Amino acid sequence: SVLNVDTIADKAGTGPVALTKQRVPKMDVTCNGSTGTPSITQSFNVSSAEDLGVGGYRYNFTNNMSAVQYPAVGSDNERGCGEINPANTSRIDTQIRNPTNLSTVDATAYVLASGDLA
Question: What is the C-alpha separation between 21 and 19, in angstroms, rounded?
């Protein structure tokens, strides 16, 4: 089946349909840190990346979150083990570790956060 429409309106026909009880990511980033210097290759709501030392990266938001308590997940391209620290409404810090020996490593990081924007 195919559904082709120009506009979907609310029940009254006067406005757009509201999306209720749905959450969408408010931040995501792919950052190549394999060289030791973070280089953002794609992002949404991220203004810059900082190097916090081997395996550590900080991502500064373009638009702040409304509260410090927001869910975030991340992984890396090589080892799949990382720490995510949403410690601030304006940024998120990550640390990539080798799961075998827990040493920190530079790698490409993928981070996604959800929540409400300020």
Answer: 7
Specify the amino acid at residue 90: S
Residue 17 structure tokens: 């349909």
Cα–Cα distance measured from residue 70 to residue 56, given in angstroms and rounded to the nearest whole number: 20
User: Considering the entire predicted model, what is its pTM?
Assistant: 0.77
Pairing of strands 25-32, 39-44: antiparallel
Residue pair 96/104 in contact (Cβ under 8 Å)? The answer is yes
Between CA 31 and CA 107 the distance in angstroms is 9
Greater confidence, 106 or 14? 14
Under DSSP, the state recorded for 88 is E
Q: How far apart are the first and last CA of the chain?
A: 41
Residue in the structure block whose two tokens are 């790698």: 107
